[in-house]
Design goal:
By secondary structure, this protein is of the alpha/beta class. It has one domain: Metal-dependent hydrolases (TIM Barrel). It contains 17 helices and eight strands. The chain binds adenine (ADE) and zinc ion. The site of zinc ion has 6 residues, from strand 1. Zinc ion (ZN) binds next to strand 1.
Length: 358
């Protein structure tokens, strides 16, 4: 980042000077486009207001006294600087009601942005390490997901993530602990610190997950090299790559991703907040679309990175001058990249076509 830029907020300043009216109209369209969110960490949706509420409810002492203080602490230099504060925030989550509140708040917000399908990461080891068992968080997640399906029609599923800063053995142990609680879990994933933690460390855990009938995704090529994307595909057998933006550094990998139609779940505001890119205007998303990659746009950790999925789409309009065609392509690819059944995908894409036709 250039030294004269004090924080990530100032790097979101629109490059194009679109009228407020056009942005308002585009935002309205964005909210009406049926879409899937495929890359969101439920612990990353913990808004400071809810963090204080849960800390109060549980008698947990936070190292902050106001919401402004929390926001002031959200100035990250890289992935690790974010993860340190993100794991600290998650400590307020203690009871099934807390996990229910967290999931309900996210699903309500997602529904307002036109999300019709959410495939949601959770980090069990962040909770089991603190003595909070699977039965506690799964009960909270599931009840909120069932409520949302009934009240606002959002279909959702969970992706159990292994923390890659912990060992492969720990991941296998976590999966065994999870076995009686897999209702609602569609896949396994891999997140946390990427540098120096190659996918191969988790080969056994992914093998075990496959025998349980779970599908597979993994974070790769966020801060790690393109070779991690290759080994996520070859060693872990993932069907979808989370982030994957560094794939562009290796043309042969890009060709492969296009040929094999491997979806990449891209998170533009996250990439700016964590300095994966210097500013949104430099984001490789336009190049990824031009290359023919299957990309979706997602929020990652919206409470920490300045926006939910609709805000990510909106910033693409404001900063990268995306129009209706590009937004509709992104929404369509989010649906095709999801783990929904083909009939539901076709129905959602038909709806999308009707919205675009206006
Ligand atoms: N956990 C939560 N957000 C993450 C990210 N962007 N990368 C890796 N692990 C994460
Ligand atoms: Zn992520």
């Amino acid at each position: 980042m250039p030294p004269d830029v004090p924080s990530h907020e100032s790097r979101f300043v629109p490059r194009t000077l679109l009228s407020d009216e056009r942005i308002g109209r585009m935002r309205e369209l964005i909210n009406r486009l049926p879409k899937a969110e495929l890359h969101v960490h439920i612990e990353g949706t913990l808004e400071p207001e809810l963090m204080f509420q849960l800390a109060g409810r549980n008698g947990y002492e936070l190292p902050f006294s106001t919401v402004d203080e929390v926001h002031a602490a959200y100035k990250f230099t890289d992935l690790q600087s974010f993860l340190d504060i993100y794991y600290q925030g998650a400590a307020v989550l203690q009871t099934p009601e807390d996990f229910h509140s967290l999931m309900s708040a996210y699903l309500d917000r997602a529904a307002a942005d036109g999300v019709r399908r959410a495939e949601i990461f959770f980090d069990p080891q962040t909770h089991t390490e603190r003595g909070i068992g699977f039965e506690v968080f799964m009960e909270g997640f599931r009840s909120a997901m069932e409520d949302a399906a009934k009240s606002n029609g959002v279909s959702s599923a969970l992706i159990l993530c292994f923390l890659r800063h912990l060992s492969g053995e720990d991941a296998v142990k976590t999966l065994h602990e999870a076995e009686p609680h897999l209702d609602g879990v569609i896949a396994v994933g891999l997140d946390s610190s990427e540098r120096g933690r190659p996918p191969v460390l988790f080969e056994d855990a992914y093998k075990a997950a496959r025998t349980l009938g779970l599908r597979a995704v993994a974070h790769a090529g966020e801060e790690g090299p393109p070779e991690y994307v290759e080994s996520a595909l070859d060693v872990l057998g993932v069907e979808r790559v989370d982030h994957g933006v560094r794939s562009l550094e290796k043309p042969a990998l890009v060709e492969r991703l296009v040929r094999e139609q491997i979806p990449l779940t891209v998170c533009p505001l996250s990439n700016v907040a964590l300095h994966v890119v210097d500013q949104l205007a430099d984001h490789p998303l336009p190049a990824m679309l031009d290359a023919g990659l299957q990309v979706s746009v997602n929020s990652d950790d919206p409470a920490y990175f300045g926006g939910y999925v609709g805000d990510n789409y909106e910033q693409l309009v404001e900063v990268l001058d995306f129009g209706v065609g590009e937004l509709a392509d992104l929404a369509r690819m989010s649906i095709t990249s999801s783990f929904l059944d083909e009939t539901t995908k076709v129905a959602l894409i038909e709806e999308l076509g009707a919205v675009v036709a206006g």
